[in-house]
Amino acid sequence: MKFFVSTNFKKQENSFGCVAHKDEILICGRAWYSYHTVKQKYKLVCYYPQYITTTESVVKIINNNDSNDVTLLSFGQGNGGKHILIMKYVSVWDEEKYISQDNNQWIEFTDKQNKPVILEKLDSYSKPRALIGGSNNNLLFITYEPNNISVLDLNTCEYVNHSKLPINGNSCFVLRTANKINEMVLFCKKAGLSIKYDEDKNKLTCKDLPVCDDVAGFSGYAYVHVNNCILFFGGLLNYSEYSNSVYKYSIKEKKWTTFKPTLPFKTAASAAILSEDNKWVHVMCGEAHIKTRVEEWMNKKEKEELQMKEDDNVVNMNCNLLYYLAKQNENKID
Asked: What is the pLDDT of residue 334?
């Protein structure tokens, strides 16, 4: 199993996350960079406002009607308080497209009345992890210490649920949605949870998940959700020892796998992201950017499921293209 090391990586000094968009990996730190996966080059997007000191989590809001419409939300802190910022992103690699001053800049997240979306019960939140879900991609799930989870409706900018979790911490937080049931998987140290949210009933339920002994002592690892599996890279063992280990958790089978191939170096406080074509995992390790092929970490059955998902993605891309062309023709007729 091979790892490929990217050259000229832009070192990030503060907490960072990653977002995938078409042929780009958006890398978040004090500065925002875009890495083009085809050109294998980096380009500066913008800097965070000076008052922002750390960024804990970044998510991409999906527009079901236009895949080119990219909106990002950022959670972090600065000036002694917490923040939610928003950005309308336009690719910095599209030299023919005009980028207005309203795009590619972090501004305060506001509601339809132009009032800041406050964190309500999240005033004392720590180490937030956020995910976008819901049957219409309109729900924002936020976990934060100590043992809290909140659900924000992005259409109304109102919180629809605040609940307590049976464990404290959220080193890993991923989501999959089916039939209006949003299943989140959360791991922290020796604890694991399956968290299901029923949109119709506005109800959260939790069940314990197994955690293998090898992973139980780790925190600060990079992780990525691939189909029905979660891959874990590196981490901090007992808050003191850096690791180069790689693990896999099967959500469907509730089983763990420990891999003998490891990262080329030890790391913690890193981030990982799946490319939009589902073929590569990119791991950002503060001073390095490495990537590895997804299929190398999958068994035969998982590879077949991944191929089916890729086929579905091709169909969806073609449908989106047809929708875009139809809209273009409508505009010409008008």
From this structure: 55
In a domain, 128, yes or no: no
Contact 323, 316 (CB under 8 A): no
In DSSP notation, 190-229 reads: TEEEEEEEETTTTEEEEEE----HHHHTEES-EEEEETTE
Q: Are 228 and 305 in contact (CB under 8 A)?
A: yes
Q: Is the pLDDT of residue 300 over 90?
A: no
In a domain, 42, yes or no: yes
Identity of residue 259: F
Instruction: Answer whether residue 75 is part of any domain.
Output: yes
CA 163 to CA 143: how far, in whole Å?
10
**pLDDT tens readout for residues 304-331:** 777 776 655 555 555 555 655 565 566 5
Its pTM stands at: 0.87
Give CB contacts under 8 A, 24+ apart, made by 37-43.
37/275, 37/280, 39/93, 40/6, 41/8, 42/8, 42/9, 42/10, 43/92, 43/93
How wide is the angle at C-alpha 141 spanned by C-alphas 267 and 304, nearest 5°?
A: 65
What residue numbers bound the domain in which 91 lies?
A: 1-109
Could you give the number of structural domains in the chain?
1
For 115: left if phi > 0, alpha if psi spans -120 to 50, otherwise beta; the answer is: beta
